[in-house]
């Protein structure tokens, strides 16, 4: 079967998240991450940050102890030198003390590097579920036990699986989570305009990840939660804060001290209670803090007013007859103590940040080599005979049935309390279940030597690394990255209107050939391209859907830049070509083309003039020099439809005459006798354009 063939690809392509021709395997890998399987199960290559952070902090602790020991030894050596019998002996001891003191400096350098590594890892580390430290600020208390009873009953498309909790377990877990949550305060938010909020929700890009509506009325992406019943559970003030900046934390967390850092900790050191990506050091020990929510949801850089409007719209999304019974019992301290044991038992901290359980490990088995297990090592329990009789006594059969009904292998068994199978029901459909099964049965410990296997290197490795970042942040919800691939936004009803086609985010097929990698690095770090005015899109301010700020780590930015370059077969490093300066006549010729009635460039391109830019559909030419590559720009002008089918940029503006491009419209008299390539002339002009020159063009227009 084809799926078995695809499973065989895993042993060579374990690090490839996307493999051409292996659609089932690709989907299985994607679902393994998207459904949160590695919250409980380790799989090499997935979610490596927690283990790397633990290693980094262990190394820091070891180095700190080594530093203390060396500093103590320096004092001892100096004292021995003072008491030495001879000058030669004293000099030898002092030299040894000096060498040890210099070694302390090297330890400091090592710790600095480990702190930098931690800073990147803390920015990259994500949790599959929401931060439960905010539960008092965020959620309606009475809703929590109803959700725990069966998450899929409240939200059929939820990624949280259904646990087989009895009433006591459910009540205990709810009580523990509620009582262990740190307290905090929220800024009181004024009500917003729900009608405008609906418009913003549908146009800002939210639906590339989120869906709205239930059943056959559901539209939007599946990457993040369906928001149809948010109004039944969320606190409005918290929702506004979250929409304004999903990465904002109530308190930072110190992995080194293993505690949340409060305002009092800062006050002890006469420091303001300020923590963000520019203020990441712990006031107590100087090590790196977790200053962001561990969510992949980015910051759309909305104004407070826009955040209030969207939150006001979302709070209308609820069932009119929704009601929940009193849950005052969640304050019972006896239930809290038992609840902590159940939270640990069921591995809740694998997907959620929970106060006091930040370092809890995964509770499931490592699945990296699951397909290599002998059939006798799969615990079919009392299902062994039925499985043999019905023909599913195989690794594939075991995994598929476990994903369908995890408690099946407890049937008929007599087990002590807390020894029943804990795996919850992930409520997968047939395609999801089959794809994950294919992925896992192909995950084997090959008997062949590692030297014979495919190992990505160079551009191939850059592509391999980049796909992990692209999938992690759902870049394809908004963008096309591959030929034939459609983004989520492209399928939404609004974008079927021809007038909305130009509102789709840009295609990124060939992006590495289009943009200067140094510019792309800056853009990924700050898509507003402005350190102060963040409520904007730095390249296409006319788009309703806005490129958000993902707060990528430096390593993630590097991987994305190299990924796009490798996909477009671009050489590394990129060295911009030197462009010949325009003389006065060429400048005037280019102006004539730019303002020609046959090719009115400034009609569509933004100019920085607010009134004009309201109807613009293309970027400002002033960005070209830093943003674009000249070769791509020339190819784009020559035939944009080849690069981006359906673009509103017209083709056939130029035609070839004696191997050089000539404008197809009426040429001004100044072009008489000019036999050079006119596209090249325009490219040189664009790349040398200044704000003053653009204002001159606007005035001519």
Large-scale geometry = globular
Largest sheet: 3 strands, antiparallel
For the CA atoms, what is the radius of gyration? 30 Å
Oligomer: single chain
Roughly what fraction of the amino acids lie in strands? under 5%
The total of beta strands comes to 7
Q: Trace the largest sheet across and list its strands.
A: 4-3-5
Low-confidence stretches: none
Number of helices: 28
Mean pLDDT: 94
Helix content range:
40-55%
Distance between the termini: 64 Å
Q: Quickly give the structural class.
A: mainly alpha
Overview of the molecule:
There is one protein chain. The chain starts with a helix and ends with a helix. Helix 15 packs antiparallel against helix 16. The protein is globular and about 95 Å long. The mean pLDDT is 94. The protein has 28 helices and 7 strands. It has a 3-stranded antiparallel beta sheet with strand order 4-3-5. Strands 1-2 form a two-stranded antiparallel ribbon. The protein is mainly alpha-helical.
């Amino acid at each position: 079967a084809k799926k078995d063939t695809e499973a065989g690809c895993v042993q060579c392509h374990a690090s490839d998240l996307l493999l051409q021709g292996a659609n089932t395997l690709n989907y299985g890998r994607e679902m393994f991450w998207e459904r949160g399987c590695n919250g409980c199960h380790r799989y090499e290559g997935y979610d490596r940050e927690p283990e790397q952070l633990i290693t980094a902090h262990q190394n820091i602790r070891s180095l700190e102890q080594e530093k203390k020991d060396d500093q103590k030894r320096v004092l001892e050596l100096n004292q021995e030198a003072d008491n030495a019998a001879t000058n030669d002996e004293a000099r030898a001891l002092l030299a040894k003390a000096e060498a040890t003191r210099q070694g302390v400096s090297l330890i400091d350098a090592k710790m600095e590097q480990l702190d930098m590594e931690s800073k990147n890892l803390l920015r990259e580390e994500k949790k599959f579920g929401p931060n439960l430290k905010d539960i008092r600020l965020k959620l309606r208390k009475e809703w929590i036990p109803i959700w725990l009873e069966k998450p899929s009953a409240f939200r059929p498309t939820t990624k949280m699986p259904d646990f087989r909790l009895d009433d006591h377990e459910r009540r205990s877990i709810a009580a523990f989570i509620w009582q262990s949550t740190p307290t905090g305060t929220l800024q009181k938010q004024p009500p917003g305009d729900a009608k405008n909020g609906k418009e913003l929700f549908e146009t800002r890009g939210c639906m590339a990840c989120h869906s709205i509506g239930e059943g056959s009325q559901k539209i939007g992406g599946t990457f993040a939660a369906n928001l149809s019943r948010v109004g039944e559970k969320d606190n409005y003030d918290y929702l506004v804060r979250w929409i304004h900046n999903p990465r904002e934390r109530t308190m930072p967390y110190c992995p080194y001290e293993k505690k949340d850092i409060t305002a009092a900790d800062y006050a002890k050191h006469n420091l303001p209670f300020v923590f963000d990506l520019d203020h990441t050091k712990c006031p107590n020990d100087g090590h790196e803090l977790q200053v962001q929510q561990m969510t992949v949801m980015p910051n759309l850089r909305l104004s407070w007013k826009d955040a209030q409007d969207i939150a006001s719209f979302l709070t209308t999304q609820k069932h009119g007859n929704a009601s929940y019974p009193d849950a005052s019992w969640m304050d019972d301290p006896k239930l809290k103590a038992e609840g902590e044991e159940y939270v640990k038992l069921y591995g809740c901290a694998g997907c959620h940040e929970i106060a006091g359980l930040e370092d809890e490990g995964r509770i499931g088995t490592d699945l990296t080599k699951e397909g290599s297990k002998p059939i006798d090592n799969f615990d079919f329990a009392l299902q062994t005979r039925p499985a043999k009789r019905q023909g599913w006594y195989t690794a594939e059969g075991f995994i598929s049935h476990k994903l369908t009904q995890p408690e099946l292998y407890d049937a008929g068994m007599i087990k002590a309390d807390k020894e029943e199978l804990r795996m919850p029901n992930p409520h997968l459909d047939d395609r999801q279940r089959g794809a994950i099964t294919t992925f896992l049965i192909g995950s084997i410990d090959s008997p062949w030597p590692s030297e014979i296997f495919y190992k990505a290197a160079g551009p191939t490795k850059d592509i391999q690394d980049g796909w992990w970042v692209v999938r992690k942040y759902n870049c394809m919800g908004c963008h096309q990255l591959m030929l034939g691939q459609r983004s989520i936004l492209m399928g939404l009803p609004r974008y079927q209107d021809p007038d909305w086609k130009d509102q789709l985010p840009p295609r990124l097929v060939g992006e590495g050939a289009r943009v200067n990698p140094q510019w792309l690095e800056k853009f990924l770090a700050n898509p507003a391209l402005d350190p102060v005015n963040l409520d904007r899109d730095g390249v296409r301010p006319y788009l309703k859907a806005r490129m958000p700020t993902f707060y990528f780590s430096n390593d993630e930015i590097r991987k994305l830049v190299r990924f796009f370059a490798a996909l477009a077969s671009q050489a590394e490093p990129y060295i911009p070509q030197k462009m010949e300066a325009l003389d006065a006549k060429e400048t005037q010729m280019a102006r004539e083309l730019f303002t020609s009635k046959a090719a009115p460039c400034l009609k569509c391109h933004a100019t920085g003039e607010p009134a004009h830019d309201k109807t613009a559909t293309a970027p400002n030419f002033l960005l070209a020099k830093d943003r674009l590559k000249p070769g791509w720009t020339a190819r784009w002008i020559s035939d944009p439809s080849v690069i981006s089918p359906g673009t509103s940029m017209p083709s056939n503006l130029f035609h070839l005459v004696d191997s050089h491009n000539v404008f197809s419209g009426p040429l001004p008299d100044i072009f008489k006798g000019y036999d050079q390539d006119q596209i090249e002339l325009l490219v040189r002009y664009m790349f040398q354009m200044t704000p003053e020159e653009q204002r001159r063009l606007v005035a001519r227009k």
